[in-house]
């Protein structure tokens, strides 16, 4: 399994925030993690990133413990935060090249950069422009191009579609589909039900530090029942 959280507990002081959290994401799967403010979504991502050591349970990135083996775990994942930080004075291409070098990617970086920028649909005229004027959507494309160029098996995303207009959201979702087709396991923390319904294979509701409910995409056009999901999300105590 690419992403594993099993029986994970974490407290801040005496406040238990993750209580026996179980969550798994396979390669080639998109999992949307929904949950109200304070449910523990960021804490979950921080556990996967190795920024916190849970008091109980197992966290693994492709079998690697991100606390015990941080460098190995980092080499297996790409993390795209809500605001993507890039070097503003560098071009899109230079940013990918620079971060690839930091990630210690093998030589021959030129050979992987252009195909990755192409795969994420960043317009060619933007490849050699400084990223300083780039929109959120364009920055995300650069970040995901980097993930594709690194061939990481795991992609973690924090509220990727917040602030994106509907067209940019659809484009972003297509981008995720590209990564999924390359066998990447994708965990997306989001409040964006529409985006989750459009692209996720599974949707999990995190509440009070554990997955309270999971829904799996159905085959066919109506993958999820949006109204039922909305009712569930907006009124967690009322079963939908
Ligand atoms: N460093 C910290 N120290 C103490 N409490 C914290 C810390 N980080 C988070 N918390 C608390 O833990 C709980 C879960 O926080 P977390 O940020 O994981 O939730 P979230 O689901 O990401 O929320 P949001 O949607 O608002 O970002 C919240 O009650 C929060 O106040």
From TrEMBL:
Keywords: ATP-binding, Nucleotide-binding, Transport. The keyword Transcription does not apply. This is ABC transporter ATP-binding protein. Residues 3-233 form the ABC transporter domain. It comes from Sphingomonas molluscorum. One of its GO terms (molecular function) is ATP binding. It holds the Pfam family ABC_tran. InterPro entries: AAA+_ATPase (IPR003593), ABC_transporter-like_ATP-bd (IPR003439), ABC_transporter-like_CS (IPR017871), ABC_Transporter_VariousFunc (IPR051782), P-loop_NTPase (IPR027417). It comes from the Bacteria.
């Amino acid at each position: 399994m690419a992403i594993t959280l099993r029986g994970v507990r974490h407290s801040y002081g005496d406040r238990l925030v993750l209580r026996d959290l179980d969550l798994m994401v396979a390669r080639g799967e998109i999992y949307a993690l929904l949950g109200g403010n304070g449910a523990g979504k960021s804490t979950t991502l921080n556990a996967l990133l190795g920024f916190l050591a849970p008091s109980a349970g197992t966290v693994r990135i492709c079998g690697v413990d991100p606390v015990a083996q941080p460098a190995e775990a980092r080499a297996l994942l790409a993390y795209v935060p809500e605001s993507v930080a890039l070097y503003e004075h560098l071009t899109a291409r230079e940013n990918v090249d620079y971060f690839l070098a930091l990630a210690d990617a093998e030589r021959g970086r030129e050979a992987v950069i252009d195909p990755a920028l192409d795969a994420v649909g960043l317009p060619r005229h933007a490849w050699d422009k400084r990223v300083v004027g780039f929109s959120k959507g364009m920055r995300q494309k650069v970040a995901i191009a980097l993930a594709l160029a690194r061939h990481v098996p795991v992609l973690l995303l924090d509220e990727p579609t917040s602030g994106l207009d509907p067209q940019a959201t659809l484009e972003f979702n297509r981008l995720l589909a590209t990564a999924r087709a390359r066998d990447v396991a994708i965990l997306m923390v989001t409040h964006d039900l529409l985006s989750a319904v459009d692209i996720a294979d599974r949707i999990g509701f995190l509440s009070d530090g554990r997955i309270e409910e999971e829904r799996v995409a159905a085959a066919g056009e109506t993958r999820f029942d949006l109204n039922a999901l909305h009712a569930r999300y907006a009124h967690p105590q009322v079963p939908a």
